[in-house]
Design brief:
The complex is a heterodimer of chains A (184) and B (481).
Chain A lengths: L12 H31 L2 H17 L10 H22 L16 H8 L1 H7 L3 H12 L4 H8 L3 H27 L1
Chain B lengths: L2 H14 L7 H13 L9 H27 L29 H4 L3 E6 L13 E7 L2 E7 L12 E6 L5 E6 L11 E8 L5 E8 L5 E8 L5 E3 L1 E2 L4 E9 L2 E8 L6 E7 L5 E6 L6 E8 L2 E7 L6 E6 L6 E3 L8 E8 L2 E8 L2 E7 L5 E3 L13 E8 L2 E8 L29 E7 L6 E6 L4 E9 L2 E8 L7 E9 L1
Parallel strand pairs in B: 1-26, 10-14
Antiparallel strand pairs in B: 1-29, 2-3, 3-4, 4-5, 6-7, 7-8, 8-9, 11-12, 12-13, 13-14, 15-16, 16-17, 17-18, 19-20, 20-21, 21-22, 23-24, 24-25, 25-26, 27-28, 28-29
The chains are: A mainly alpha (184), B mainly beta (481).
Chain lengths: 184, 481
């Protein structure tokens, strides 16, 4: 579907919005895989990552008119996703949610989460606060500059630098602790 | 290792770790949600915006005139009361087990009435809401904490009721907003022992960080920010007794989250923090258990149970962790000499009971727990010597067998359909060890994390409807029979 613009005709709001919606849907569909990855590293497990992604996609769709520049979709969406994850983790503190069985991993649990738990860096990541983890994942997994991370999260650059510094210190402390445990 | 080495390690970790790919089910769900989503607000052209403003102004004038007429004719009509309301007793707290009539102890069902509380349009049902008695009324405090939009202010409000059924709005949630933040995170509430109440949680600062926060009130209408000493963090639960209040949660005193407690001896206007012993990562709930406070939480590197006790809220000791490493607790309910712990096992909800010697054992709950993976405990409360717990169940693949015994109902057995609708089961126990299923009438879809006892009746916020997607949030009032 496309809107006819030009040739002296004035497109109706409906046709313009329909075209915008289709572009938005395609853009967000193309971003789902990256969104699941980001959510996975923030939540530490696949079921929560998928739920958070779906929630963020729904919210993004509802708020799609507020995206002024389609080229900045990634940053705009990441911010929504990070806040969905944050909300989700908060809710889980009050209502302990359970990943219902039936996914392809069966009842033995989340294979991806297991991989994280077996890796010393993965364990260290899970020990960070959500704010620290978010900075680490955006900086090293998404390979963003500190300025881009600050822009995505709406945090001052100094805050991002400080959180990254503390996060790296915590990861080092955790890895050193694991190494000492192995040597014992 | 220096920072450069750590950076290299972290980058290598992301390169070697496989991330999950979106499933077809997720993509389909996203597509479905677009169809079901409400139409977005459109950016209006200036002329249309002006026209809408004029329409709004005209509507405002009409409403103002109507309100004036109502006032002239005798004031605001009283809120409607649900028909068939059961007369309530005068007490606001549960009776002790020794006062409990035998008929209540042998409860086999729970019946619900729906209050007239109308969930505000535009406020998500995913809000965190608190139910807390203040004076002779029960208050409902609901906030969406600003939702997913980091620039949004929190929405919500404060409502009050004398019977759980007829509700009136007391104020907007602005009453709990502090200077410098529009995003209070209200995680728990309790009476403050002086006729008022406290709400605890955190505030989100403009740079996205958590700052421990608490609010207190003497009358439910006027709220004040408490002074909270100690590092930043998040209070998750609060309990009170006449000589003081205790909250528990997490702090970020080092580079990672650490379990912590706060105590107040002035009705919640000032708090002092203390780290809980044992290196726990998070303290989830706290309660008054006999003459001491008891708190529950998790260890740093696994879902191991940590049970702390304190006589004064300032000095804590870590009880020996039960040998149940997979158990992740989230709620404590005292019942005489027994402490009932609601939580999750490796494949479903589970309940532990702990005795005075602080040793805990797994309770036998037909239809709940390891044998019924997929069940999900939502809330629980003690009423007249009976603990009532509700659990979401009936998901795909979950088959929990029928429960034997007089009056017991059959636990949902949804069969193989992947689209099976979750149902809500209620379980009851008078000793925390043996449990039966209560028949619920009518069936509720979900009761949220709040289930309290007010004037001898259960009160909670429930989603009611044919399924979760079409459910409406209501306040429900229940009686055991």
């Amino acid at each position: 579907m496309s809107a006819r613009v030009g040739n002296g005709s004035t497109p109706t709001d409906t046709s313009l919005f329909a075209a915008e919606d289709e572009v938005f849907a395609r853009t967000s569909d193309a971003y789902v895989a990256r969104a699941v990855g980001l959510a996975f590293y923030l939540t530490g497990n696949r079921p929560d990552a998928e739920d958070a992604t779906q929630e963020a996609m729904t919210r993004a769709w509802t708020a799609r008119r507020s995206l002024r520049d389609p080229a900045s979709f990634d940053a705009w969406f990441d911010r929504i996703l990070v806040n969905c994850v944050r909300e989700r983790l908060r809710r889980q503190r009050r209502i302990r949610e359970v990943a219902f069985p039936g996914d392809d991993e069966g009842e033995t649990g989340d294979a991806f989460a297991t991989v994280l738990a077996r890796d010393s860096v993965g364990r260290a990541l899970s020990s960070l606060t959500l704010e620290q983890r978010t900075v680490v994942v955006l900086r090293y997994w998404q390979d963003l500059s500190l300025g881009q991370v600050a822009e995505r999260l709406g945090w001052p650059l100094g805050t991002v630098k400080s959180r990254l510094h503390h996060a790296l210190a915590a990861i080092r402390e955790r890895i050193d602790g694991d190494d000492a445990e192995v040597r014992r | 290792m220096n920072d450069r080495d750590i950076e290299t390690e972290v980058k290598a970790f992301f390169r070697r770790t496989a991330t999950p790919k979106p499933t077809a089910r997720l993509r389909a769900a996203i597509a479905d949600s677009r169809l079901a989503a409400p139409a977005p607000r459109r950016r209006l052209l200036p002329t249309r915006r002006t026209a809408m403003s004029l329409v709004g102004l005209a509507a405002g004038v009409v409403i103002a005139v109507a309100l004036l007429l109502v006032a002239v004719r005798g004031g605001t009509p009283a809120p409607a009361t649900a028909s068939g309301a059961t007369p309530v007793a005068s007490q606001t707290q549960a009776q002790s087990p020794s006062q409990v009539p035998t008929a209540i102890r042998a409860a086999t069902s729970v019946t619900w009435q729906t209050g007239d509380f109308v969930w505000p349009s535009g406020l998500s049902t995913n809000v965190v809401e608190q139910l807390v008695p203040i004076g002779d009324r029960l208050y409902l405090i609901a906030s969406d904490n600003g939702g997913a939009d980091p620039t949004a202010k929190a929405s919500g409000g404060i409502w009050a009721t004398a019977d759980g059924l007829a509700w009136t709005k007391v104020s907007d949630i602005d009453a709990l907003k502090a200077a410098g933040t529009d995003r209070p995170e209200l995680m728990a509430a309790a009476p403050n022992g002086r006729g008022g109440a406290v709400v605890v949680g955190s505030e989100q600062t403009p740079d996205g960080a958590d700052r421990t926060a608490a609010w207190w009130t003497a009358d439910g209408k006027t709220w004040a920010n408490a002074s909270v000493a100690g590092p930043a963090g998040l209070m998750l639960s609060v309990a009170s007794r006449p000589d003081g209040l205790v909250a528990v949660g997490i702090t970020y005193s080092s580079v990672a989250a650490v379990a912590a407690a706060w105590h107040s001896s002035d009705g919640g206007s000032s708090w002092t923090s203390v780290l809980l012993p044992g290196g726990g990562r998070e303290a989830r709930d706290v309660t008054v258990w006999g003459d001491r406070f008891a708190a529950i939480g998790r260890s740093s590197d696994a879902n191991q149970l940590h049970l702390w006790v304190s006589s004064d809220g300032a000095t804590w000791s870590l009880a020996q962790s039960p040998s149940d490493p997979s158990f992740s607790p989230f709620r404590l309910i005292p019942l005489g000499n027994t402490l009932v712990v609601l939580g999750q096992g490796e494949s479903g909800s589970a309940i532990l009971t702990c005795g005075n010697d602080l040793t805990c054992t797994r309770a036998s709950v037909p239809g709940l727990g390891y044998t019924a993976s997929g069940t999900q405990i939502r809330a629980g409360a003690e009423i007249s010597g009976t603990i009532v717990v509700n659990a979401l169940s009936g998901t795909a693949g979950t088959v929990a067998g029928p429960v034997a015994g007089p009056g017991a109902s059959t636990v949902a057995s949804p069969g193989p359909s992947a689209d099976a609708v979750p149902g809500l089961d209620f379980f009851a126990s008078t000793d925390g060890r043996t449990w039966t299923t209560l028949k619920s009438s009518p069936s509720l879809v979900v009761v949220t994390s709040n289930l309290v006892v007010f004037r001898g009746r259960l009160v909670g916020v429930a989603l009611i409807g044919p399924d979760v997607t079409a459910a409406t949030a209501k306040v429900v009032v229940g009686d055991l029979r």
